[in-house]
């Protein structure tokens, strides 16, 4: 039986009624990628309030590598809900936080002893990584990249690249942030230390091993190693932002492992929590321990439900061989997408690593039209790219071969429709569209 099953035109009457209430109650700044409201989910499938079933290739923007309602995650949540919900780890600690820290320390690349602190969102983890780097190095500046995305809180936003709609209007941003081109010859970085900011003023460089929101941009082989070497030479901490790439998405537990790099600090979130809000900074123990007691923390960081969910999600990724699965899914997508590229001039490029795959289209308007055609035909996905012209896939890695085939068929039909101008017209296509 196909997973996609549409009972009503999309959106159905119940979703339309909820959209009306949403527009009254929720500010317009909070974007809405699809006009449907969810009632339940399982594996790689979402059902909406009108009973329509979709394949979910957005995965809550890459948070569900282990799948929707992964059975081990759900069981762990039930068990924890029967024990206690919140005490604040800083007040009355609990074992699951420590167990998860131990697990992340063991998983993080490299043999140097590690420590982990837990937070609630990727942006919060990014901010803490920068705080820790500044405290350790006693230097102010941070290097980030063109097309980077590190979150929406003010320091994270200063590190994020895309102006509209993310940054415009929210100035001023924290100072001492310097942006350089991504994937360009590493000598450019040395040049920056001559012309823009002295190397000895730089605390950290933060980099996505594959850029996510920026459009699934894979840097040239050896580039990450070269910039990591330059960082080491100048005593600059190398921070890997694995928020979107982590937990199997690229075919390894962490994308930085493709180049055998040991980051000084690593930031994770999204699929870490198996569907619950959870983030982490994992780093070399000597660096992590450098701040004063009480200097780091947060009321909800490492909430007990989220810790139990994360431990179960990581186990599901390991036991289910989901890193290898990501590799195979990525190849399946890539084969089809490269054939589409020959057939549809609309596609300019196909790129990605493991299951973190995408294709770039001619413009933002056709990208929006394609995404709309897809959800109207039962496939949910999100766009990306500084110019909003990238279609990316972030499906749960437990998606079956049949579901993958179904999804690719919808995408192919959508490409044919948009290519010949018969695709759904986007509601408001614009270069400034949010990708999330
Ligand atoms: N870093 C990267 C690479 C991301 O992709 C994101 C979110 O998309 C973030 C940080 C921010 O994470 P959050 O939305 O949980 O704050």
Oligomer: single chain
Q: What is the global morphology? A: globular
What is the CATH homologous superfamily assignment of the domain at 72-319? Type I PLP-dependent aspartate aminotransferase-like (Major domain)
In the CATH hierarchy, what is the architecture of the domain at 72-319 at level 2? 3-Layer(aba) Sandwich
Q: Give, in order, the helices and strands.
A: HEEEHHHEHEHHEHEHEEEHHHEEHEEEH
Proportion of beta-strand residues: 15-25%
Q: How many helices does DSSP assign?
A: 14
What Rg is obtained from the alpha carbons, in whole angstroms? 21 Å
Query: In which range does the helix fraction lie?
Result: 25-40%
Biggest sheet strand order reads: 4-10-9-8-7-5-6
Small ligands present: pyridoxal-5'-phosphate
End-to-end CA span: 31 Å
Global structural class? alpha/beta
């Amino acid at each position: 039986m196909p997973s996609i099953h549409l009972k009503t035109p999309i959106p159905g009457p119940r979703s339309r009624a909820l959209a009306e209430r949403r527009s009254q109650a929720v500010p317009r700044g909070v974007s809405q990628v699809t006009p449907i409201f969810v009632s339940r989910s399982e594996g790689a499938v979402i059902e909406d309030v009108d009973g329509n079933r979709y394949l979910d290739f957005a995965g809550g923007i890459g948070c569900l590598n282990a799948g929707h309602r992964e059975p081990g995650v759900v069981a762990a949540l039930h068990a924890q809900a029967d024990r206690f919900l919140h005490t604040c780890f800083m007040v009355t600690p609990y074992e699951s936080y420590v167990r998860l820290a131990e697990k992340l320390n063991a998983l993080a690349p490299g043999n140097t002893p590690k420590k982990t602190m837990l937070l609630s969102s990727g942006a919060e983890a990014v901010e803490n990584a920068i705080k820790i780097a500044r405290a350790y190095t006693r230097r102010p500046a941070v290097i980030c990249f063109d097309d980077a995305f590190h979150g929406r809180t003010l320091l994270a936003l200063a590190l994020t690249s895309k102006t509209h709609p993310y940054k415009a209007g929210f100035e001023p941003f924290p100072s001492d942030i310097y942006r350089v081109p991504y994937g360009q010859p590493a000598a450019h970085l040395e040049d920056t230390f001559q012309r823009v900011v002295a190397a000895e003023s730089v605390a950290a460089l933060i980099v996505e091993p594959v850029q996510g929101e920026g459009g699934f941009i894979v840097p040239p082989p050896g580039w990450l190693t070269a910039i990591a070497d330059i960082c080491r030479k100048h005593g600059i901490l190398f921070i890997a932002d694995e928020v979107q790439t982590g937990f199997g998405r690229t075919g390894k537990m962490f994308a930085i492992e493709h180049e055998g790099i040991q980051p000084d600090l690593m930031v994770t979130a999204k699929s870490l929590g198996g569907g619950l809000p959870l983030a982490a900074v994992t780093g070399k123990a000597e660096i992590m321990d450098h701040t004063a007691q009480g200097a780091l923390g947060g009321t909800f960081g490492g909430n007990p439900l989220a810790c139990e969910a994360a431990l179960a999600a990581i186990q599901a990724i390991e036991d289910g061989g989901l890193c290898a699965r990501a590799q195979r899914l990525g190849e399946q997508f890539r084969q089809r997408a490269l054939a589409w590229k020959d057939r549809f001039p609309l596609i300019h490029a196909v790129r990605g690593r493991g299951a973190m795959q995408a294709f770039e289209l001619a413009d933002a308007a056709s990208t929006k039209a394609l995404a709309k055609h897809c959800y109207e035909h039962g496939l949910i996905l999100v766009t990306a790219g500084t110019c909003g012209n990238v279609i990316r896939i972030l499906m749960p890695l437990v998606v079956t071969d049949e579901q993958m085939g179904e999804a690719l068929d919808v995408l192919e039909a959508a490409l044919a429709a948009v290519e010949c101008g018969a695709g759904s017209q986007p509601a408001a296509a614009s270069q400034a569209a949010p990708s999330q």
